[in-house]
Design a protein that fits this description.
Helix content is 41%, strand content 15%. It is built from eleven helices and eight strands. Helix 5 (103-112) links the parallel strand 2 and strand 3 (120-125).
């Protein structure tokens, strides 16, 4: 992949950082983010709710399910409460391997993704579309023990893969390499809750190649879990997965992203 940073091409990690209010993005990322925000005005809420789901799911796995090693693919730029910070608060010996394909993420990861004395973290620059490259990477093999259960996280990343069959094959290849008792934590954009007008606009934008996100239905997203045992409450809008606090939840329409956790 190399360390060449192309600031003229949109990258999802930098665009996501823009929506979350970060500073690590370029004009192309902001323009793309603004274009998507016109189609989905609550995209910043979606990004925040998606991030909060990841943190709740990782805490559950580390604190309640006994998972002490994680493979986080599509990491994004480091922010508060990254996967290793959440996991290591529950289990200081937890190990985390991060994977992303943006050199800017790599630069930040080297500086910020330090684990605890007991736990370890590492970062691999690789592409989700090449699962064998990820699984056979020497840093992954040095950090994780694949003969023991792993928490695989694919959060807001599969919807960048066109073709449900291709995406399903990628998930299957990753899960097949993991021990029984491993977990898949997954979120994915959807237009299930959109109005017919919104759905038509989304299909038009995607058809013209103006968007790099391929939303899927709940049934399509459920197919990624295959025969995994879903953790309650199953596949739901991310804001509805074990919510914390007592305030009203955002609507499924505004969140527009499903999340779920399944056990192999």
């Amino acid at each position: 992949m190399g360390d060449h940073l192309d600031t003229s091409t949109v990258h999802p990690a930098r665009r996501y950082n823009y929506w979350l209010g970060g500073k690590d993005h370029f004009a192309a990322d902001r323009e793309s983010g603004d274009q998507i925000e016109k189609a989905h005005p609550t995209i910043r809420l979606t990004a925040r709710e998606n991030r909060a789901f990841l943190q709740r799911a990782v805490h559950h796995l580390a604190a309640d399910a006994g998972i002490d090693q994680f493979l986080d693919i599509g990491t994004g730029l480091p922010t508060a409460d990254n996967t290793h910070e959440v996991a290591q608060r529950a289990d200081p010996a937890a190990r985390v391997v991060y994977v992303d394909n943006d050199p800017m993420v790599m630069t930040h990861a080297r500086a910020l993704l330090a684990g605890t004395d007991a736990g370890r973290t590492c970062y691999i620059e690789a592409d989700l579309r090449e699962p064998a490259t990820i699984l056979n990477h020497p840093q992954l093999r040095d950090t994780l023990d694949l003969s023991r259960p792993v928490g695989l996280t694919l959060v807001a990343v599969l919807h960048f893969i066109p073709g449900t069959g291709q995406a399903r094959d990628i998930v299957a290849a990753l899960l097949d390499a993991l021990a029984p008792g491993s977990y898949l934590t997954l979120t994915h954009g959807t237009i299930d809750f959109a109005s017919e007008q919104e759905k038509a606009y989304a299909r038009e934008v995607i058809g013209k190649g103006l968007a790099d996100v391929f939303p899927r239905t709940r049934d399509e997203i459920a197919s990624f879990f295959g025969d995994l045992d879903l953790v309650e409450p199953g596949i739901v809008p991310v804001s509805e997965w074990r919510p914390q606090g007592t305030g009203p939840l955002p609507t499924a329409h505004d969140v527009a992203i499903y999340g779920g956790v399944g056990r192999r």
